[in-house]
Write a structure and sequence with these properties.
Elements: H1 5-14, H2 29-41, H3 44-55, E1 69-70, H4 83-98, E2 102-107, H5 134-149, E3 155-159, H6 164-173, E4 184-188, E5 191-193, E6 203-205, E7 208-209, E8 211-213, H7 218-225, H8 228-235, E9 239-244, H9 255-263, E10 268-274, E11 283-288, E12 291-295, H10 302-306, E13 319-328, H11 329-336, E14 344-349, E15 353-354, E16 360-361, E17 368-373, E18 386-389, H12 392-395, H13 408-425, E19 443-444, H14 452-461, E20 473-474
Parallel strand pairs: 2-3, 2-9, 3-4, 10-18, 19-20
Antiparallel strand pairs: 1-11, 5-8, 6-7, 9-13, 10-13, 11-12, 11-13, 14-17, 15-16
Helix pairs in contact: 4-9, 7-11, 13-14
The structure holds uridine 5'-triphosphate (UTP).
Uridine 5'-triphosphate binds next to loops.
Length: 479
């Protein structure tokens, strides 16, 4: 049903948000209709609640950390974990993959402001030699999994209003990178209005609201709204392998991880890496009020982040979150229906807007508040959540910033180090520096090898093996 403009404008005025329609009378009929449609998306009661709890009084209250402790996790076999249990988990995960119970799930609706790249982040050219985009890296990993387990995976990709068309168009233009297009599903996440520091909804033009994606936590309700859960149910898929669009090292489907999740009867599972240093900007897996939680680096006091275990000397809160999860389909449905509703978080950002005269304002510093949901906030509601350790070098090197830590350059180096490790484990010798970085750039397609074992298999089939030199690309397994 079309919203009634008069009633809507009145509702905004009564909620103290009348400024949204300050320029309404100047707009063309088409622009008026668009503004009314955007405004009708807004849940005024929700905005009012968020303004009261997160904006007024300078922000949310500090977390109550009484009884807080580090969360237990399953250590890797080489670090004290039980190798028989890991082997059983890998076998269970492989069986689930062969049975077609698993789909991939990527959140790609972020704005990528820190990277400053023009276009959806998944289209960013990330690999060292071929400059393949992130979406292609994941596509090739999924095709490799299909070859190994004999089942083509469905892939659910969450986009935003801003990047949906560009993302779909990119897959179209590239023939879906060899994937069966009927198994690639795009859906848009919800959006939320930005407000100023007094709680008034900001316009980003005279006839449009400053709306932004509702955070990666919006993926649960957006997935349910999209009909994806019903599609999965009809296809016999009950398990989702969740990862972020900016991390090309991620194992898109990891049998051992999936197996731990299934064998434990978990509704949501997570991977962890030990933090490299106390100030590293990762969330922490903790137990609070008896439940598993991720506490952000900004919310955990620095003295706790620095605390060491007296016997091992390791950081007490060492278990860092790297945003890789396995999630049960029906858990998403339950969460989307409102069980254990996720809390919104406040982020102060620069928001382009208009002044009282309707002129454009491009702020130099944060002038507004955005509201975001985080997917890890679902963990306390999950039954039997399990956290397993992974090696950073095998799973995590995100592209977040334009330079420095977690940048295209650091990610390129981590990809090169991974190829060099695989080559060495396959018996090849190549020159590297003390960090394992090879002296020249080469590239391994996931279709050739996506982990040490698959790489070794493909490498052993090359007779004779190719000369290792600048620009070498190992593209296909030759199977
Ligand atoms: P980040 O927290 O790194 O945010 O997202 P971002 O928007 O990509 O980058 P900045 O902060 O603007 O620089 C982590 C993952 O969550 C997804 C992103 O696409 C990325 O895969 N995400 C984030 C969404 O899908 N939707 C959102 O609303 C936010």
């Amino acid at each position: 049903m079309r919203p009634d403009p008069t009633q809507l404008i009145e509702a905004f005025r009564r909620a103290g948000q009348g400024q949204v329609f300050a320029f309404y009378d100047r707009l063309s009929p088409g622009a008026k209709a668009r503004l009314v449609e955007e405004a009708a998306e807004i849940d005024l009661a929700e905005v009012d609640r968020l303004v009261r709890t997160l904006v007024a009084a300078g922000g949310p209250q500090p977390l109550d950390l009484k009884g807080l402790s580090p969360a237990p996790y399953e250590r890797l076999p080489g670090r004290g974990g039980d190798s028989a249990q890991w082997a059983a988990a890998a076998a269970a995960g492989e069986a689930a993959l062969r049975a077609g119970r698993v789909a991939a799930f990527t959140v790609a609706g972020g704005q990528g402001t820190r990277l400053g790249f023009d276009g959806p982040k998944g289209t960013f050219p990330v690999t060292p030699v071929r400059h393949r985009p992130l979406f292609q890296v994941f596509s090739e990993k999924l095709i490799a999994a299909e070859r190994r387990y004999g089942r083509a995976l469905h892939w659910f990709i969450m986009t935003s209003h801003q990047n949906h068309a560009a993302t779909e168009g990119f897959f179209e233009d590239n023939g879906h990178f060899g994937l069966d297009r009927s198994r690639v599903h795009f859906f848009r996440q919800g959006r939320m209005p930005a407000v100023d520091f007094t709680g008034r909804i900001l316009l980003d033009g005279q006839g449009s609201l400053a709306l932004s994606p509702d955070g990666h936590g919006g993926s649960l309700r957006a997935m349910a709204r999209s009909g994806g859960l019903d599609l999965m149910a009809s296809e016999g898929i009950d398990t989702l392998s969740y990862f972020q669009v900016d991390n090309p090292l991620v194992r898109c489907v990891d049998p051992a991880f999936i197996g731990w999740h299934l064998l434990r009867g978990s509704e949501m599972s997570s991977k962890t890496i030990p933090k490299a240093y106390p100030e590293e900007k990762l969330g922490h897996f903790c137990l609070r009020r008896g439940r598993l939680e991720v506490i952000e680096y900004s919310d955990l006091p620095m003295d706790l982040q620095r605390e060491k275990d007296p016997s091992s000397g390791a950081l007490r809160y060492e278990a860092g979150s790297i945003a890789i999860h396995v999630i049960d389909r029906e858990f998403i449905r339950r969460m989307a229906r409102g069980a254990g509703e996720l809390p919104f978080h406040r982020a102060d950002k620069k928001v382009s807007t208009v002044d009282a005269a309707g002129c454009e304002v491009r702020p130099e510093k944060a002038n507004g508040v955005k509201f975001e949901l985080f997917v890890f906030d679902a963990l306390p509601s999950a039954r039997n959540p399990v956290v397993i350790e992974t090696a950073r070098a095998d799973d995590f090197s995100p592209v977040k910033n334009a330079e420095g830590v977690d940048s295209p350059a650091s990610c390129r180096a981590d990809q090169l180090r991974q190829y060099a490790r695989w080559l060495k484990s396959a018996g090849a010798s190549l020159p590297t520096d003390s960090t394992g970085l090879p002296d020249f750039a080469l590239e391994v397609s996931p279709l050739f090898g996506y982990d040490e074992g698959s790489f070794r298999e493909s490498w052993s089939r090359l007779k004779p093996p190719p000369a290792l030199a600048e620009g070498l690309v190992l593209e296909n397994s030759g199977k």
